[in-house]
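Reviewers of the previous submission asked for a worked example of the structure-prediction workflow described in the proposal, so we include one complete record here. The input consisted solely of the amino acid sequence. No template or homolog information was supplied to the procedure at any stage.
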Amino acid sequence: MINDNIQPWQQNKIVRHSQILMSSFECWTGGTLVNCPGSPEEVAQTLFEAEFALVSHGIEADPIFNYGNRKALQLWELDWEDFTSMASRQSAEEIVQEERDRLLAETAAKGFSHFSGVRISSSSKRFYIEDGTIWNLLDEENKYFGQAAIYSNYKFLD
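From that input alone, the workflow returned the following structure tokens.
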């Protein structure tokens, strides 16, 4: 069990995951998520507290979110434990699942993609994401590790 006083970004596995988020984004897009020349722990904190939403899921048959920064947790109205136990498909309404699946497959093949689309919070608030980027995650051994998405342009629809 995690100490209630410990933030997600303070966990060793999240510090490592933050490095994977950063290096994979740079690998596929040539860009950087944040300009933070500090320690891996400082990078993890900067990503977690960023003004954009950042999420990722793993490689399970039905992928589970394994990361959501503070902005994403606020958008989905969930705490860390609930968010990181949720299947990522649950972030989208049933009606848009086919488009979401197409986007994930395209990203798996190309490395990264841009997207827009409607997602739904835990309390059924719908929001439209514009100009998001989704990319494949590669671990330290260059093995497929999941996918991540970042976006800062969104608006609530309800």
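The chain has five helices and six strands. We consider this example representative of the routine output the project will generate in years two and three.
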